[in-house]
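Repro:
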Amino acid sequence: MSEAPSLTPFRRTWLHGDEELSNPTIASLVAEGKLPADLLARLATIGEWEPDPEYPNDKRSLYLNTLADAVLNANDPQNARPDTQELVWGNTPNTIVDIGWNDSEIYRQLPTLYWGKNQLARAIKQRRAAEGVTIKHAPRNSWYEPWELESRRCSGLAQPLWRVLTGRLNPNILEHPEWFYPRTTISFNVVYELGQRTVQRHAIANTHISNDALVSLYGEIEKTGIKGVGPIGKLDLAAMLAQENEDIMMKLARESGIDIEEIKPTP
């Protein structure tokens, strides 16, 4: 007898005291097979503070209204709103914005592979190491060690490419970043209001993109190109994707003159 599916505890809880949206209720519906186990990850494609266009005067966001709609119509999805049907019971979304735990173990529980900006930064770091341009010495009086400076540099280099890819798949993240990342933050008991560009940078950095969506964009880059993605960006993206996509790995191997038979995975 197979085990009942269990709710993947993606992100934090924000349920505002709504009993119908309580985790026990959602978990029960998931266990009964009426809602997908990755429901909370699917919902993360919507900005947590995104207004609901069907109810502009409603204080609850599209995020919460979609969740409530899914719970209400779990027994008969055809009665749910079309966008709820597509998001909850359709294909997994291209993008999810995770400002919660960013827990790698939780990502391994999702049925679809997602990539994050940090993984692209690691691919860039490997390329820079091969090119011999890694930062080896910190400036005098620097607060950071050389390896920390190198990591920050690679993260900064990854940001523009991740911005282009994110914008192609979910323009709202660029156009309305405040829907995805809070404008107000607290540091050392002081409340700060972040500027629009800072909020956008954080929203982009916390976006994860599905493997299928990135492979499709890489194919477009190969065929016709995408504005904002140059040869180096294309190479870095390919190097990251090659870890999980054998056809891209083989292509890079051929271009590098590597014996393909030597790197084919063992059956």
